[in-house]
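Researcher: Here's my situation. A collaborator sent me these components and asked whether they could plausibly form a single complex. I don't have experimental data yet, so a predicted model of the whole assembly would be a useful starting point for our discussion.
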Amino acid sequence: MLAVENVTVHFGQLAALDGVTLDLGEGEIVAVLGSSGSGKSTLLRVIAGLQRPDAGRVVLDGEDLATIPPHRRGIGLVFQDHALFHHRDVRGNVAFGLRMRGDDGTAIDRRVRQLLELVGLAGYEQRAIATLSGGEQQRVALARALAPEPRVLLLDEPLGSLDRLLRDRLLEELQRIFAELSVTALYVTHDRAEAFALGDRVAVMRTGRVVQVGTADELWARPADEDVARFLGLANVRDGQVVRPEAVRLGRVDDGRDGDGVVESAVRQGPTVRVVVRLREGGELEAVVSSLEHPLPGDHVDVAVDPAGIVRLR
Amino acid sequence: MDSDRAPLSGRGFRALSYGVPLAFLALFFVFPLAAILERGLRSEGDLASPLDVVTDPVTREVVWFTAWQAVASTALTILVALPAAYVLGRFAFPGRALVRALVVVPFVLPTVVVALAFLALLPDGLERGWAAILVAHAFFNIAVVVRVVGTFWAGLDPRVSEAASTLGAGPWRRLREVTLPLLAPSLAAAAAVVFLFSFTSFGVVLILGGPSYSTIEAEIYNQAVRLFDLRAAAILSLVQLACVALTVWITLRLETRLSVAGHLRSERETLRRPRTRREWAVVAGSLGALGLFLGLPLAVLVERSLAVGDGHGLDAYRELTRPTSALLATPWEAVVNSVVYAAAATAIAVVVGGLAAFAIAGTRGGRVLDGLLMLPLGASAVMLGFGFVIAFDRWPVDFRSEPWIVPVVQALVALPFVVRAVAPTLRAIDERQREAAALLGASPGRVRREIDLPIVGRALAVAAGFAFAISLGEFGATVFLARPDSPTLPVAIFRFLGRPGELNAAQAYALAVILMGVTVVSVVLVERIRRRGNGGWI
Amino acid sequence: MRRRLLWLALVAVAVGAAAGCGGGDETPTEVVLVTHDSFAISDGVRAAFERESGLTLRILQAGDASEMLTKALLTAGNPQGDVLFGVDDNLLSRALDGDLFDAYESPLLENVDPRYLLDDEHRVTPIDHGEVCLNYDRAWFAERGIAPPESLDDLASPRYRGLLVVESPATSTPGLAFLLATIARFGEDGWQGFWRRLRANDVLVVDGWEEAYTARFSGAAGSRGDRPIVVSYASSPPAEVYFRAPRPTDAPTAVVESSCYRQVELAGVLRGARNEQGAHELIDFLLSTRFQEDIPLSMFVFPVNREAALPPVFERFAVVPADPLELPPGEVEANRDDWIDEWTRIVLR
């Protein structure tokens, strides 16, 4: 329903967007994944109408949006740092879009209550924005954007400023809310976990281009190039092929031999341990060990690779 | 970055926000001033070289004195006001709003009254001369520094200074290396206004300086009115205007250079009650000194208003409701006139200044407008008054004798204050707030109504209060207009002072006390609005 | 840029048109008096004029006498009003040279002492006179057993050292009148010596009458001044009585009669007046006994109309100097600036 076609935006010499093309289907959630400066926020601003593209166009439900000002596009945006209206209370923020489209008072009240319930802030109507925690502000921002039932919802790093625990919890809530309302959304983030968790498809952006679009599995299985592979979290990228860390098996050498390499570091990441081995023939290899027992830094190890874990890049 | 940011404000509004202030300025400032200057410069036939006036040793002496006394007055004012600005910018304490209101009182009092109070107070020998001039200028202008800098100070995040202290900076070091640089833009703005007022000072210099001191403004008056040498007056006006333009230009550059991007905090976050005994002592000491400095001359005025015969009484106040030969109205009517005129002037200043603030905050060309709006502060009131008389003398601009010309002139003086209160707040509004509103379906006009106006509303209210006070006290420019028989308070005070007899003098002082009262009440009322949120610079 | 200018012009015209709509060329219903800030008139007297003439009297106050005249000169030919009142003899030549007035000879002039008629062509009509005189604090001299001064010459005597405060002639009307008084008394070559002696006798020069009288002069009620002799007006003693509550039976101050310098205030019909007929009626009214008798207590000067009766407080406490000092207006106009410059050098530098 939303099509971004060949959009280019220049800031001076710099191309913030360089011929970006992206589709979004009805009820679909596409996560745009990219590091900072990759142009993903600019993409959102172009879609929202806050930034005029130098070339290309944005089409929504078959209609070219070029001449439509932001306030008539029916597109919602959740800002990175919320951009809540501090001069209004929670109700005033959530009701804003409803007032703009001319809803009457009781309808607004009903809808505000419903949305605050949805985001878990029931009874917060009269609270001042300044008294809310970061997570609460994020929920208000989401409720505000959802209230006027936008055709497309854009989210710009909505969880970026929150701590990890809170982020994980909100992530789940977002999944639930999106599913409940069958929202069509474009979700911009630099965090691949968020992207994979929320996106039906993930678009990877780099220096103003979309370099790959696909489901999480597709990307994981076939990264477009070494950079994408690295960005997705795949280590062991070398010579057009990727060795998945979980396919690497390590065996500790106990008999005084040098083995294939020496363990550089071993860091526990929840249920698994990430082990980096410096190979004797040069280079490093990353392995994921899921057993409680794992090699320690300084240990000499032998290395074996499951052939199924080797991905050849396109 | 925002080179081709999609504009959220319409072309029509932008034209309006530039057009109205520019038209106002062109019609009521540039046009009359140009008319009188042209008449003056041509008064001896052809345009002659102004060199003879400029190079005259008396002119040079006058310009030199005007400049250095203005610089010294500005420095003294800042020095005297800074402790109070600090206390108001950092601490919450009972009576804070009242203090903020009281400092405005000297600002609106007629010069003659204050000068006479100073004559009575200053010790023999010091009562006249340049020292008395500097002290009086500090007295008049302290409000500008305390309010502009104090309010800005209250917007600074105290944690920055706290961070410096954890890095090992002592209090003086913190003041010098952290606080003062952050305050610099507000200091520059306040200093510029104080400088302009001192530079164009007239009454204070004449009375407290004695006959041997003269500023450019006083010399313009002398040439134009006493000697009727319009040519010399016009040339001196140009010299003064050039100095003023230079000051404004330097200030704007300084402000740009010095301004450090950063969010102004709300006072709720920055102000706290004094905690230690030491802090209470600092608060009490600063305010006590300020109270003594401002309070003594004011106390003299109150005492004089009550002095009847050998004792004291309210006779002068009782007399105020009766017709008097000193005025073509009862003094009480003068109070009403003042309030009506000031309200009208405030309305004009808020509408025109508010629009200008949008232009100044929203576009790059706004700086020029900002500077232009400051110019009337430093233009010669005498010449502007004469300019009105000769410029507005025929259809379609035959309004030199219209009563509404009085609030228009007052608004001209109040405009820069409105702009300076509102523009920084507008600038500080996060653009994303407007974008968020637009994406929720608000048209550009609606965005201004729903986002800009409520946020700026309080700043506008503060500006309105200050404009009201300025208009109440404005004397210089209005006195040179031909007024119909509806005197304002300062004019009435002046008239009473101009006649012999005890009751006349007492009534003059009584009216000055009433003027003080009206000022305090109006400013306190505005403060109440202001305290509910952030709000501008003054 | 050009479009912007066009805009400005449009706005100016629109505003002007809105304001200009009211003006028409029907029979004028009002007469406008341009005057200085010290002008005053009782409500009843004003109402009487309006009733009898059928005209509304609009009063425009345009600053002090010099400011008023400056504005009148700037607008000569297209004046702000119909009648100008408040030019005094010191400013007269300037006003006449500026061709401000149309001649009008009021029939009421027959009641006016001819010595006040300063213009043979009747371009100006005398309305009041108020002499500038030395005032002194009677109590101050009585308490010390010192005789008050009796002449200008006395001021230079050591007995009156440090007792006099005067206004600067450069910035003050009474100050100028007093300088002229000394010139009239000591001659064009003698006044400089007198002022040198005054300076040596510790004369205090201040900027204006307000400061001299209310702050420096010891005789004004409520004043903390310590100078018992001041340059003020012949009408100041009755004012000190009239404005004191309760009213004293004796005037606290008195006038040195031989020091008085004459000042006549004049009115004229402004050239280009919109309501010339009304202007004539207004001049006649200003000379009528009704207005003339209102003058002393509203403006604290003396009427020129011999028929006008003085109020009791003036009868009792005011001195009308029989033979005040004076200089021909033309001579004043020709020399004023030089005299002031010379005075400044002698007294202030």
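Model: Some features of this prediction you could bring to your collaborator: The CA atoms of residues 125 and 423 of chain B lie 45 Å apart. Residues 533-538 of chain B have pLDDT under 50 and may be disordered.
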